[in-house]
Design a protein that fits this description.
The chain is an all-beta fold. It contains no helices and 34 strands. The chain has strands spanning 24-27, 35-38, 45-48, 50-53, 56-59, 64-67, 71-73, 77-79, 84-92, 95-99, 102-110, 113-117, 127-130, 133-137, 144-146, 149-152, 157-160, 163-165, 169-172, 175-178, 182-183, 186-189, 192-195, 198-201, 208-209, 212-219, 224-226, 236-245, 258-259, 262-265, 270-271, 278-279, 282-285, 290-291. Strands 10, 12, 14, 17, 20, 23, 25, 26, 28, 29, 30, 32 and 33 form a 13-stranded mixed sheet that branches. A hairpin with a 2-residue loop joins β25 (208-209) and β26 (212-219). The radius of gyration is 23 Å and the shape is elongated.
Length: 293
């Protein structure tokens, strides 16, 4: 091969020619730790059947990549800037960095760590199934993921600093940690949601039925969780729900009258319900915390 890491260098391929439509591209574990670059200067358009890569792939700015069949990236898939990526099912392992990509993908399956930085114009990913760590990082004002179905699996972490919007959805079975995040889509939380700043939720919440919060773990420890403004007050914490709050930072919870699950007052904080409180579950008060009845 050539002494470069460029996809667009024909001498790097066993056929001495670039892959074309219909090819199944296999990149083995090469000497050293190369990152294979698909750069706009050499190859602005790539269209193949599939890619199976044991090395990290970087898709450069202003490139257009199309994969017709399921593909696997074992050591990461980077988007170095605005680019167009069309694919079927994409499995990703290792560490990846995504910068404002434009994708049309049936399903991304993440087993590693993805750091996403996207602008206010936003990015859409079709479907993301996260088994690893997905960090949606603030990148300028109002970063946005839109029209994306996100499933955060048990044991996985989704860190949210931007906005989830449009026709998408969020199913959380793992941990969503938020620092100034916004969820405008529907939300189904049977895992843990933890806010360290302010998390705004305006979409429908599966566990928020009438005056009850039925399930899920909701932690407003050093931040606030703001439920839909139009929602009714929460008067019952259901048997499968865990609510941790202080300083009235969990909207709708101050009206709680019945605890069938767990109500936790954070260490050093205080909580004052609006009226009498019936406990049929568990109430915890952290160190130096105050529950005022």
């Amino acid at each position: 091969g050539a002494a470069t890491d460029e996809w667009g260098d024909a001498a790097n391929w066993d056929t001495d020619a670039l892959p074309v439509v219909g090819d199944d591209v296999i990149i083995p574990d090469l000497a050293g730790i190369p990152t294979i670059k698909i750069s706009q200067a050499l190859v602005p358009v790539v269209s193949v059947n599939s890619i199976t890569s044991a090395e990290r792939i970087e898709i450069g700015s202003l490139t257009n990549v199309t994969l017709a069949a399921p593909s696997t990236f074992s050591h990461g898939l980077d988007f170095a800037g605005p680019s167009t990526f069309t694919a079927n099912i994409v499995d990703i392992y290792g560490a990846s960095v995504w910068v404002t990509p434009d994708t049309n993908v049936a399903q991304f399956i993440n087993h590693g760590t993805i750091d996403l930085a996207t602008a206010a114009s936003g990015s859409s990913f079709g479907s993301i199934q996260n088994f690893g760590t997905f960090n949606f990082l603030a990148f300028g004002p109002n970063p946005n993921i839109f029209d994306t179905a996100i499933t955060n699996e048990f044991g996985a972490t989704f860190h949210l600093e931007g906005r989830l919007s449009g026709t998408g959805s969020v199913v959380n079975r793992g941990l969503i940690s938020s620092s100034d995040g916004k969820i405008d889509t529907s939300l189904d939380n049977t895992g843990i949601i933890r806010s360290t700043d302010t998390l705004y939720i305006s979409g429908a919440i599966t566990q928020y039925v009438g005056n009850s919060l039925l399930a899920g773990t909701w932690i407003a420890d050093s931040g606030a969780i703001i439920f839909p403004v139009a929602g009714v007050p929460i008067t019952t914490i259901g048997p499968a729900a865990f609510v941790s709050t202080a300083y009235s930072l969990f909207s709708k919870v101050n009206s709680v009258a019945t605890v069938d699950g767990t109500l936790h007052v954070n260490s050093g904080g205080f909580f004052t319900p609006a009226g009498d409180l019936i406990n049929r579950g568990r109430i915890e008060v952290g160190s130096a915390g105050v529950l005022s009845l």
